[in-house]
Amino acid sequence: MGKIEHVKEVRVETIARESMLQSIIQSMLKAHPYEEPAYDVYPLKNSGVKYGFVRAGCLNPPITLSKLCLRVKDMLNIDSVNVVGNPDRIIKRVGLCSGDGAEFIPLAYRDGCDVFITGDIRYHDACDARDMGICIIDGGHFGTEHVYMKELASYIKDELKSRGLGQIDIALSQNNKDPINKV
């Protein structure tokens, strides 16, 4: 009593639809090891404008899928990728979505992309992509997201400052590592 105790904790933040909020809170309360966990809920007040997560562009000069895979592995600093498509196919137009972008494969296909680079491709997504004729490079969820965190933090910091909210420090996790090991 009367002593400050320091403990290690993990803080989890997420964005969820309001309709799912009670279910999420109940699941958290059920799984949490404390009798009274601390949690905050902040309602989103944005206007509902849709912002895209997919980017597309053209390679100049075009290269084979296998060479693009090597380039992606190098740029993401990962040892391997999962690939759908003919390694010798010439790739001109590339679509990209970090993390779990499987839902955007049809969009990339409609946009004329030869390949879609993302993470977390499931078996049936791979089959659908193959049937559409679009190649896939799956760099994993962590592999496709970790590379831009510093830039994202810098952007958020600059954006907050430009909106008159002062100098806000953005802390990046030093413990965030890919939980998946390939053996």
Class of the domain at 55-146, according to the CATH hierarchy?
Alpha Beta
**How much is the radius of gyration in Å?**
21 Å
What share of the residues does DSSP label as strand, in percent? 15-25%
Please tell me the CATH architecture of the domain at 55-146 by its name: 3-Layer(aba) Sandwich
Please give the number of β-strands.
5
Order of strands across the main sheet: 1-3-4-5-2
Number of helices: 6
**What distance separates the N and C termini?**
48 Å
Largest sheet: 5 strands, mixed
Instruction: Kindly name the structural category.
Output: alpha/beta
Low-confidence segments, given as residue ranges, are none
Helix content: 25-40%
Element order: H for helix, E for strand? HEHEEHEHEHH
| Name given to the CATH homologous superfamily of the domain at 55-146 | NIF3 (NGG1p interacting factor 3)-like
What fold name goes in the CATH topology slot of the domain at 55-146?
A: Udp-n-acetylmuramoylalanyl-d-glutamate--2,6- Diaminopimelate Ligase, Chain: A, domain 1
Shape, per Cα inertia axes: elongated
On the 0 to 100 scale, the average pLDDT is 87
